[in-house]
Give the backbone structure.
Amino acid sequence: MKVAIFPPNSLILADLIERRGHKALVLQNEIRKKVKDPEIDSPPFNLTEEDPIKGLKYAAIEVPSGVRGRMSIFGPLIEEAEAAIIMDEAPFGFGCIGCARTNELCVFYLRKRGIPTLELKYPKTKDETTELVNKINTFLDSLEENNG
Amino acid sequence: MVKIAQISCGTEYSGVQKEIEKAASTFGAEIVIPETDIDYIDEAYEKFGFNCASSGIRLMIARAMSIVEGKSDADAVFIATCFRCAEGALVRNEVRRFIQQNTRLPVVTYSFTERTKADELFIRMEALVTTVARKSILAREKQEGLTLGVDSGSTTTKVVLMENNEVIGTGWLPTTDVVGCTNDGIAQAMEGTGYSMDDIEGMGVTGYGRLTIGKKMEAELIQEELSVNSKGAVYLAGHQKGEATVLDIGGMDNKVITVNDGIPDNFTMGGICAGASGRFLEITARRLGADISELGPMAIKGNYKNALLNSYCIVFGIQDLVTSLAAGGSKEDVAAAACHSVAEQVYEQQLQEIDVREPLIQVGGTSLIEGLVEAVSDVLGGIDVIVPEYSQYIGAVGSALLVSGLGKRQE
């Protein structure tokens, strides 16, 4: 199944999902498509004026361009997702897209989708980490079963 | 090459990063990103003390700290955040203050949208680069010798002749042919002084026509209006140290510049609505059968609350004023309402984009309309508004001041 993650660029979450045989919908793949496009020359991500305009689908014009630019990439991933894992209170190193308002909007849209969603708090101890990985694995395996 | 450190949030996701870099390179500068690592972000954030939710904003704080603590090398700083982001606007301003208080680096700030193009950033980047490259000129606080300043504006050409820290002649005329108007303006300024072009030591030019005039007349200083107007305003207002805001409500466009020790650090310019310009007041004066110079004193005697104005528009707003007159309203109240309308719209369109710092120095031709000055102060909650002498010649005075010491024509 296609699993969206939050933060949308968390390599650890993506890896856990791939290991259980699902497809992780990560931001890096989308950015990769953009930066490989020889038609566009707008470093570093090759986002142009058109992208925040595409983001109007998710947030109105009074919302800052940075939020809409981010949503233009993450919004389609949310729409494509069949399941989601949301990690709350994660430090920058775990994954981060830099903008608190975009974070709020992404999590809200993921919840609104009504797809199987696992919400977690970032672990602080070794035991919590083990428990968290188990929860994620159980969730991912249950998706497989639900999917038949 | 001048290194401009970029401290920003959201530029890469708004598609404007390339425009910023293009604007910098046009003026021979390069954009550099100050060094930070993950641990340093937390350390700097704690030290700075501003609680913010976005990690991109925390990164801005860390980058600013990196410059202040000397971990990154830069000649100037460009601070930018997304337009309409409250957290971004608050931190942008605090980071600006932090850098200005702890370093001698020139800073320029900006709030961008996805529509921001390189040419909108040109004047800011040019101001940053010239502030670095011409530090000694901008430090000048006194005019010496005999110098000429020309402000070749889009609507009017202003000329001043200065001698030993005093304005001794002025010229003012509507701009048509830029070179011809400058020559006529110079003739006006020289008249009665006993001096001719052969006597001046140097000439400084600014305004839209600066490159054409500067080249043609071999001016010693050709400088964008942001630095020149800031310098001219604080010089004439006797406020060369500390913070201030310079407001110029023009005939066609409006400029607001915030300055720190006479050096500009933010700027906003608007010109899409005639209702927020001097043109609105010109039309009002005409409808009142008065000269524009009479409008100010008239407005001071009136009360804007007595003349109902439902629109800022130059068409519908003026109609409201006419209706008010027809209903027996006084000319004074109508004049006051017109001034209040322009001040309110300038506030809503422009002053809200910028952190207004006291004192506010009002300049340009419209600063001579007392009713407008009073309305601006009123709209801003009664802040201190200074209108210096020669306020309509601000760019020309700034040019004459900055070129003094550069001119070698008499040697």
